What we know:
Layout: H1 5-11, H2 16-24, E1 32-33, E2 39-40, H3 43-59, H4 61-72, H5 76-103, H6 106-112, H7 123-130, H8 134-142, H9 161-176, H10 180-189, H11 195-230
Helix pairs in contact: 3-4, 3-11, 4-5, 5-9, 5-11, 9-10, 9-11
Pfam families: MerR (PF00376), MerR_1 (PF13411)
GO molecular function: DNA binding; DNA-binding transcription factor activity
Protein name: HTH merR-type domain-containing protein
Amino acid sequence: MNYRPIDIARKLTISTSLLRHYEKHELFPAPKRSKSGYRIYSETSFLYIQAVRTATLAYGYRTTKKLMDLVREKNYTQALWLITHEQYQLHQQKEISDQTLALLHKEESELITQMPRKGWITIGEAAERLSITETTIRHWTKEGLLEVSRDAESNYRKFDEQALRQLLIIRLIRASTWSLDVVRDILATFKAETPTEMIQLAEQSLQMLNKRLERLFISQKYLYQLITFLSPDYFTDFPGMEFYDF
Length: 246
């Protein structure tokens, strides 16, 4: 069965321009063209695009590109390990969000943001309190997610109570999304300045992670369909008892 671009766009509720974007970035094999130059999408194309669409929602474009390249090479085992790695990372991000939520309870929050007499601490001290590497904090600062002033005498970055709360928020949001642009958007629209507001943001972050988990499983469904279409003998759904003989 062949499809027109508009047919696939309607089936997957995407635009034809997004379809061309997938093709431009070689996320699926280029379709054949008719004598008049129109794209002709086959059943293989459709299954690829289904897998691409669900994978981009689950993993983002960079990981999807790696995943689809492995599938096209028929390196299915490595593709499955890539998915497993993504699931492991998501679990780590869930733990970060849980830990951050625990830290945001009033007593813990006040302990973490408590300042010495001078009113600020160094980047090393901030990293230690929040279990974030100094390199990560510098990267977030470089990307404009956080602004901190410097001490006139020592030139050290000064992390005060507000900066520490901001770091907690950034770490929380970053754990639930792979995109720094999304982090910027949330920071611009959501001003969490009190522990209560930060807890609300933490709960929203956990909801985002739950949604990503759902997207991961949906993506696996369509990846499975694609692989079984390309290589029907690759998976054995119900192996015999010899499967257990090692």
